[in-house]
């Protein structure tokens, strides 16, 4: 089977590519930077003979058409995931325009299965109700989350029109082999570096990128039966739980103060304004605080493709070991995991 993948050089994308190849399929990746694709493929030791590259952009109709031509299935994982206010324009262009272009091209090409990678944040705020397949699209105030909600509306429109579109909702993802040190791994690293002394109360869903990749591998070939919306395996963690698990796996104290999330929202909004003109990233973002304030657990009955998430402690330990091996954490910062072998 030939699977066309967008966003394959990102964290979710490259792990999903690796999973797809492990299942015996060929992959065609639409990429803007072939060198970045080669680095990502090498990072996960993907069989290079099973992957072809098409150079182009998801917002270009011609590029998208070339990428999906003749594909049996399409995985649309392209997106800008960041709460950094400097990325707002790129988010709108890639997350919304890119979704419309790719899904339309996949439908025209006759792909039998089209998997759109959404996000749990596209369903927020939910009014405190657990998230499920029938949850309405949210209207979040954060710009990144708003663009994911916009992309979600596009995907659901294609579903209503009868297209073979399946939607996945990954939680916040941690894990090793991250080509770009994305938002969640950067937050974990900043915590171990002592740059996160204040946390909002509340919580958010956390999962392992390898589990979400397994879900995507399953969805690409699963029978075309309901449900057509699935949640990435994970756990809803309170921020206190998150810190407690990280302390346990590293053996470090990691002192932190906790403040009500909604009370911290004005500070997050101010930081986002300052960030637009500040050249270095400030690890205090409106979107992260907003998520803690409004995130809801996933309904236990919601579909996860029949997959069970691996323990968060295992995910965190593997992530810390990998960051340490990459030189992104010192021995002191990695604590008990410094020098340990693992995933």
Q: What do these coordinates show?
A:
- The chain is α/β, with parallel strands linked by helices.
- The protein has helices at residues 11-22, 34-43, 61-68, 88-109, 143-160, 183-192, 209-219, 239-250, 261-275, 286-294, 312-325, 331-334, and strands spanning 2-6, 26-31, 51-55, 73-76, 113-117, 165-169, 172-174, 198-200, 203-208, 229-231, 235-238, 257-259.
- It has a domain at 2-175 and 205-234: Rossmann fold.
- The chain has twelve helices and twelve strands.
- The strands form three sheets. It has a seven-stranded parallel β-sheet with strand order 3-2-1-4-5-6-10, with helices on both faces.
- Helix 1 packs across helix 7 (209-219), helix 3 packs across helix 4 (88-109) and helix 9 (261-275) packs antiparallel against helix 10.
- The two termini are 29 Å apart.
